[in-house]
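Would you mind giving me a polypeptide sequence along with per-residue C-alpha cells?
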Amino acid sequence: TLDAYKTNRVEIYKHLEMSPLLKWRLSQFHDFFGSPKGIKEFLGTHELKIIWQIKRMYRTRNLVVHAGIIPDYTETLVENSHTYLDLLISTINDLSINGNQIRTIEQAIEEISIRVKKHERYLRDFEGKSIDEKNYVKLIFGH
C-alpha cells in the first residue's frame, strides 16, 4: 500500500488480469490500508461484521435450543465460534504471561478495550498524514 511500492503493485495487477476478483481484493487492501482514515474504516467494518457473526451465532443457538431447528450453516458458525474462543483464550494467556498483571477475564477485556481506544485515538490524531515504512505497523496494528 505504500507509495514507495507503487511500481510493484501495478506489476502485480498486470499479472492478475485473469483473476479480476483477486485483483479487486488487492486494490481494496490498497484503498483501506493506504491512509489512516481507510484503516479506521476497515477496522470499523470488520468490527461490525464480527458483531453480526456473534449475533448470528446467538440466534442459531436459540433456534437449536428452543425450536429444535438446526440450520444448514450451523457447522460454519461452530467453526467460527471455536476460532473466536481460541483467539480469546490465546489473548488472555498472552496478556497474563507477558507481565501485564492480568489475572481475570474482566481485566483482560478491560486491557484490550484500553488498547483499542488508544489505537483509535492514534488513528484519529494521524488523519491527513501519510503512511510510511516507519509508522504503518503502528497504524494498522496499534503497536
Notes: The chain has a mean pLDDT of 90. The two ends are 19 Å apart (CA to CA).
